[in-house]
Amino acid sequence: MKKRSMAVMAAFALAAAGCSGGSGGANPSSGGAKPADSAPAKTEAPAKQVTLSYALWDKNQVPAMEEIIKKFKEKQPNIDVKIELTPSGKEYWQKMETAAIGGTLPDVLWMNGPNIVKYASNGMLMAIGDQVKASGLDLKNYPESLVNLYTVGGKLYGIPKDFDTVGMWYNKKMFDEAGVKYPDGNWDWNAVVEAAKKLTNPGKGVWGIAADMNSQEAYYNTIIQAGGGVISDDKKKSGYDSPEAIAGLKFWTDLIHVHKVSPTLAQMTDTTPIKLFESGKVAMLWAGSWNAIEFAKNEFTKDKVDVAALPKQKQQGVVIHGLANVISAKTKNPKEAWTFVSFLGSKEAAEILAKTGTVIPAFNGTQTTWVKSTPQFNLQVYIDMLSYSKPYPVSKDTSKWNNLETEYFKKAWTGELKIEDAAKQVATKMNEFLAQEK
């Protein structure tokens, strides 16, 4: 027991910080049974009054989750659910790491791609395959890629909650004033750069685009568009030393250092790119579908912005990912926790997520409701991009090479290191880590 405890502590000392993780490929909107034809999961009312803890990190999703919990409470009056909100994804994973080491994970929690293998393989999560089979819950109701993502060692650990892609948001007012046509989904990288040049006004502290050092919302997508990849399909080799990956990274650093149409990394550290966009200081921002609700609520952006599909280069490309709800292996109320998770995976819960515009629900057939929830934005582009989406890159110990990305790419974003050199150094060290994975 002592040796296992030390091993678990060592593994979790390297836990990743991130808001989202990876998906498992394939088109999430296709396949599966029609929601209307599937029977709801069978649940039994618990005999005792219990309170479950439910951990999440996005404040924008709290109202929808509270509404879902209210509906759940109507069906299961003996189960109370207490939301444990952490302000950011980074803080969330730091908190979960500490809780995992101490054996005090919340009863139910959000899980992402980069962390599922680590938590599942270290015995921190409850396998739910038997519960799914006994309840009658139909896994065909969810994108197969997400079900596969949360299956580790042949065992299912999570019920898909949502999925997301990335779009290019733009300020219509700024575009109109600069006489620039709106992006229409047919832009390439050159079009983005040329538009950004026209939209940049150094004297007013206004930039055409924010070159955020963000993997999921920025350079993972351009690497795909350049024809490259972050990691090989067999998870044994880094793709960062390929010309395509370097081109995808260089697109972003050039926006800062060559074209000078983006704030510097230091400026984006002082004021986040999303805040710069929401204050009219940045005209274009690549952002995940989960940000739609943020922009709809913000007084500045709610009627001034819209979203288009990402530009293409050698090919079209976008990263897809999705979260799942999982159960702690050490919950004192496994039966009640499963009852709650199965409801979170129901069509009823998905419709609440969709109609409130919170996120794109994973339950097949409910995505159109999400698109219609915020009619002033062209949210359909997030769904349309699924046809050429690629899974968020992960491996067993994703956090190890995620840390390398942060360490070396930061030097390239600040101009301290050439992006070519940074990418090759990451690839070398990443390959060493991948060789150690089993």
TrEMBL record:
Please give the superkingdom of this protein's source. Bacteria
Tell me the Pfam families matching this sequence: SBP_bac_1
Q: Where in the cell is it found?
A: Cell envelope
**Keyword annotations:** Signal, Transport
Does the keyword Zinc belong to this entry? no
According to the record, the residues making up region (Disordered) are: 23-44
In the UniProt record, the signal sequence range is 1-25
Q: Name one GO cellular component term.
A: cell envelope
* Predominant location: other
Instruction: Name the family.
Output: Belongs to the bacterial solute-binding protein 1 family.
Q: What is this protein called?
A: Sugar ABC transporter substrate-binding protein
